[in-house]
Write the structure tokens for this entry.
Amino acid sequence: MPIMLKEALARLTVPQLKELLDHVPDAKAATRKDDLVERIASALLGPELMAAWLGLDEVQRAAVAEAAHDPLGEYSAQRFQAKYQKQPVFQVAKARSHGYSSGKKSALCLFIHSAGSAEGYCVPADLGQRLREFVPPPAPLQLASFETLPVQDGWVERLTEREALQEVGIMLRTIEQARIQVSEKTAQPGAAALRVLSEKLVGGDFYPVAEKRDPWDQEIGPIKAFAWPMLLQAGGLVARTGSRLALGPAGVKALGAPAQEVLRGLWRKWVKSTLLDEFSRMDEIKGQNSKGRVMGAVAPRRAVVEEALRECPVGRWVTLDDFSRFMQASDLGFVVAHDPWQLYLCERRYGSLGYDGSHGWNILQERYILVLLFEYAATLGMVDLCYQDPKDCRNDFRGMWGADELGFLSRYDGLVGLRLSALGAYVLGMTTAYAPVVRPSDVALSVLPSLQVSVLRGSLSTEEGLLLNQWAEPVQPGSWRLDRQKALLALETGHGIAELRRFLESHDDVPLPEPVESFLLQCEHDGRALKLGASAVLIECRDPQTAERVASHPETRALCLRAGPSTLVVRTDQLDKFHQRVRLLGLGMRP
């Protein structure tokens, strides 16, 4: 509920009111509280308001403008700091003070008052109305962006758009062909799976693999290789069979779909997924799985970061610090932890993040932003990255208990800047169409009547090599032979023979030989020779007479078939109905 000026002044003590009266131009002295409130209010709601306003410095005027033009009249110190990178002066030192005294109220306190014990600060409603008559609105908030970032030693610029367009197919084929295992409990890939996936990444992972020199050394570890199986599982393209990942029907379909559509679908599924809390990748922060409601929901966090990403100009660099401040200044906040006391570094009691200075925006919200952008948005090609080694890059955690031996708080601390790509704009719905840059292939193939396929010129991309391995057996480096068994297996799992035909025809200048055409047509025809029907159950009868009785009776004959002298077969979806009809014949059926 809006507060009025006299109501706000009445909450102050007489000494505090006297301090404010000193800032009112030409004000007469008063001693009684009611008189002090009346004189200050009359001045601020009267002609002296302009003079009082002119007595503020530039930063204080900006604070008043922000609050006066806020829809609720609120003043947020966090938002102001994020936008202006400075704070206005609310208190000044007294002429004579002692160790326990606080400062004297500045002139800014005439305008911005406490809204209550837990309601922050605001400009009273009646005062705000007067201020808006002459105080100009604050400058609109803008996200700073740059054509280029200054080059510094150790900085890496990574263009992720083209990599993602290639890698999504590579990851799907790798999961289809290799034995990629994940934890049955967490769905996260293990060390062996991460090694296999890392080798398939187009440009490698963001950081090279480095062996630990000492057991206590921090390890950056895989980023993209970890993200891909999580994204594909959340997107419903792959599924777990026990601990092994397998391509699902949607994954097979995705192999023939435009890569940008697959990537857009993965992001849309990810922002709603509960498969993983990205903050759990902050290895040094323990206690996230403690009992009780410790961590906040992940979907609202992602939605807020996504909203901020839409404010980024396409093709221009934004520093991570500017992006983070922009989110704060725009009031794009979110909850990472409901109970930071449960989170800790090293030791639960002394290293708790509940202490002041240990659970601020920079530790919780900003680190979450780093994970989401670095590991997931960049993996999907939505943002290009500028980054460096995370060690000693962000030292804002050094004052926390237990941080003495840490080189970095998270493996993502090295992120310096990001650039929204054209693909990212399409994924976020900022554009309605996306035209990927088609890279011309320099590969020339020779397709022989013997069904042998050889590379004459150039080198196959990772995805092209995986495609050939899907349909053909390697003969020697750079040479394959089309294989009927492999082709039938590919067709059974949902791949189309047209995909192989297009690939061969586009890389060979002459028409395909007749034996190869025959091979393709025969495989396509034979690949549909049989079709899986409904599953069924075998029923063993006590003797052939009982089997004949059930199979020929009007109540049951439409529900079963003879499969032997004393055996009947019943479709699984008809089993309950069959059981009921058998009882009508006076017969029982036990497991």
Notes: Residues 305 and 369 are 7 Å apart (CA to CA). The radius of gyration is 34 Å. DSSP finds 22 helices and 20 strands in the chain. Residues 97-101 have pLDDT under 50 and may be disordered.
